[in-house]
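ok, trying the design again with the full structure, not the truncated one.
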């Protein structure tokens, strides 16, 4: 029907292979060109490939600049703009490569035995500050054979989601690597993990992020330190037990350091990240965004994006600091007066500013943006946001062939006593006709401190393509609506937010085109927790899919890589201090009440919400005689839906569609 009307076909799970992802838009110092990363899913190799592309700011077709059959990422212009440094796995592990804008092949700069995870150009363009866990600059002649395969664990942090196996004893440190020959030297050392190097404008010092507190094994502190580029003892800049600081950036005159974060490390993601400034010599940091009541980070969730690492950027005239701000489902670019004052919106609209960069004179900005019907493109505008132009149309051709459902942005009353309006999006099914009543799928986001928003979401579009209406909301606990809304789910998981979800479902049913006997529910991570919670507290849903879920908070405390801090803060105590609270808030407690046919999707290497969470739920429901199925994804982590092997990503989507087709 839809096809007849529009001449377009319906979206399919495998269409993830048709969508190219662009990210990390880096404008050249002279503002003439933008380098960006273009990532595609390689069906044959069941892997990802990415390359660096260039596009003229004046317009024209983007051109592919790096051509290796590899994963190239993180392009960064030399200060003179005559070459690009980037990360590439061409030699096996990610290392720094250099390519001249004048032509010629890329040259490998670093040969560390461990991957390089981040780097920064020195202001004079002679040296790179590089982050790696390597202990030597060159690989050893021969890797020593391990004496045993038995693993001895002595630290509380011994696994980290996304790192297969167990964490090793190596630490991430900063090295300096001369760009035109010469031996690299190690700048920081010791039992600390360093990240995010930022050169002082004079090139004498490097600021960085580390946790150097004595209790660092157990706490979640993140401090700002600085060290002479030649090496030596680092000095504290913004440190101590109340530091939860990231992404340092120097003022152009070198007197001030700005960074993001907050002052309650244990509260983690449940606090807005603010922008702070401190005298570069150290002192008391002052917040520049305390009146904003929003986070200066990108908090939006999607299943269709490549990663980049944007941080605040100080304008060359020293007046402004540019930063992302998460606001009601959008991620906008703001500039914050460095001396204090009203933040100014620079790039707004119903969209997500994924990353951004400034030309050397600060007159031009390049950004990657994402919108509900377009996953990603590169735009350019002036320093105040005026004169915006789109430089790429990466997926225009593909999206001209498929029909998408345009999400309607609405505010719907919560079913809680306060009837608070909850921000939500409704997608009508493809082929929608007046007078017909459709099944509805409620999507619940994770975090809980993240947000859905104005971005393309393949899973939602697929459900709409299969004839479902889709509802997604930002209930209590979500980012983007202020501190009070963000943290009010503490000690009240499920209890505080379920009424918001159910109020939204009721409000959509009232619109008249939903069949109330055909409601489905799904979500991942905390959204999986909530899916379990919801079906344990109501029988209104006819089918459910729980993904990377949590079912038992007491075992989550001991098995998740973040259980002993995130879990403890979010629930409000340890399992031995609050056994009744852990029992009350665990979905498993309500398993006997769960009647909804449930599909459990889980990755076997999920160390965030370990697969034992799914196993417990599966066996309990099976023993209770319920309709339940368990699909396990080998060699995948918590990030399966976003960065898993392409074939598994397609299979995951197919399982979701299959379950709803059968039970909804
Ligand atoms: C419910 S326990 C851990 C939840 C996890 N939070 C932090 O890592 C989570 O909900 N993650 C979300 C958002 O990133 C996800 O979609 O995986």
């Amino acid at each position: 029907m839809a096809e007849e009307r529009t001449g377009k076909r319906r979206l399919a799970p495998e269409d993830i292979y048709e969508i190219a992802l662009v990210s990390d838009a880096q404008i050249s110092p002279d503002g003439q060109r933008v380098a960006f990363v273009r990532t595609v899913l390689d069906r044959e190799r069941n892997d990802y490939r990415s390359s660096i592309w260039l596009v003229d700011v004046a317009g024209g077709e983007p051109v592919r600049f790096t051509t290796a059959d590899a994963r190239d990422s993180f392009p960064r212009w030399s200060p003179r703009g005559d070459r690009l440094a980037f990360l590439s796995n061409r030699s096996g592990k990610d290392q720094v490569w250099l390519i001249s804008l004048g032509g010629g092949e890329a040259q490998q700069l670093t040969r560390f035995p461990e991957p390089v995870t981040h780097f920064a150009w020195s202001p004079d363009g002679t040296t790179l500050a590089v982050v790696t866990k390597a202990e030597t600059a060159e690989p050893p002649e021969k890797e020593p054979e391990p004496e045993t395969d038995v693993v001895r664990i002595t630290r509380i942090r011994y696994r980290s989601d996304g790192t297969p196996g167990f964490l090793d004893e190596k630490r991430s440190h900063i090295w300096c690597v001369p760009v035109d020959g010469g031996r690299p030297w190690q700048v920081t050392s010791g039992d600390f993990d360093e990240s995010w190097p930022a050169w002082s404008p004079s090139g004498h010092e490097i600021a960085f992020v580390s946790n150097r507190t004595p209790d660092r094994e157990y706490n979640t502190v993140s401090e700002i330190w600085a060290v002479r580029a030649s090496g030596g003892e680092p000095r504290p800049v913004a440190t101590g037990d109340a530091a939860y600081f990231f992404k340092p950036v120097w003022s152009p005159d070198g007197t001030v350091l700005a960074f993001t974060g907050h002052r309650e490390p244990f509260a983690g993601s449940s606090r807005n990240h603010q922008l702070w400034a401190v005298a570069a010599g150290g002192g008391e940091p002052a917040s520049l965004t305390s009146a904003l009541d929003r986070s200066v980070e990108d908090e939006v969730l999607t299943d269709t994006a490549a990663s980049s690492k944007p941080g605040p950027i100080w304008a060359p005239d020293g007046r402004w600091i540019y930063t992302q701000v998460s606001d009601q489902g959008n991620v906008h670019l703001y500039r914050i007066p460095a001396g204090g004052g009203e933040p100014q919106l620079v790039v707004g609209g119903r969209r997500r500013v994924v990353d951004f960069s400034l030309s050397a004179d600060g007159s031009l900005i390049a950004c990657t943006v994402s919108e509900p019907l377009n996953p990603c493109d590169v735009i350019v505008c002036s320093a105040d946001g005026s004169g915006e132009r789109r430089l790429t149309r990466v997926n225009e051709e593909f999206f001209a062939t498929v029909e998408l459902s345009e999400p309607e942005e609405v505010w719907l009353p919560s079913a809680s006593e306060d009837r608070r309006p909850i921000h939500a999006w409704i997608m009508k099914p493809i082929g929608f006709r007046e007078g017909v009543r459709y099944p509805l799928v409620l999507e619940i986001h994770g975090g809980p401190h993240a947000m859905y928003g104005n971005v393309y979401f393949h899973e939602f579009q697929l459900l709409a393509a299969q004839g479902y209406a889709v509802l997604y909301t930002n209930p209590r606990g979500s980012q983007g609506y202020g501190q009070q809304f963000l943290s009010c789910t503490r000690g009240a998981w499920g209890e505080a937010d379920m009424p918001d979800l159910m109020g939204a479902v009721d409000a959509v049913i009232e619109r008249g085109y939903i069949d109330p006997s055909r409601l489905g529910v799904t979500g991942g991570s905390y959204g999986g927790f909530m899916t379990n919670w919801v079906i344990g507290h109501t029988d209104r849903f006819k089918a459910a899919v729980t993904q990377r879920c949590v079912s038992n908070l007491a075992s989550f405390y001991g098995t998740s890589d973040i259980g002993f801090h995130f879990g403890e803060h979010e629930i409000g105590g340890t399992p031995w201090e609050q056994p009744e609270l852990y029992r009350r808030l665990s979905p498993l407690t309500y398993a006997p009440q769960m009647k909804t046919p449930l599909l459990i999707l889980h990755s076997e290497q999920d160390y965030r919400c370990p697969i034992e969470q799914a196993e417990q739920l599966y066996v309990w429901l099976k023993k209770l005689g319920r309709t339940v199925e368990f699909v396990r994804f080998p060699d995948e982590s918590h990030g399966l839906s976003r960065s898993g092997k392409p074939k598994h990503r397609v299979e995951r989507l197919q399982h979701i569609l299959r379950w709803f087709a059968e039970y909804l």
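Keeping the full-length input from now on. Residues 402-663 form a domain with the Rossmann fold fold (CATH 3.40.50.1820).
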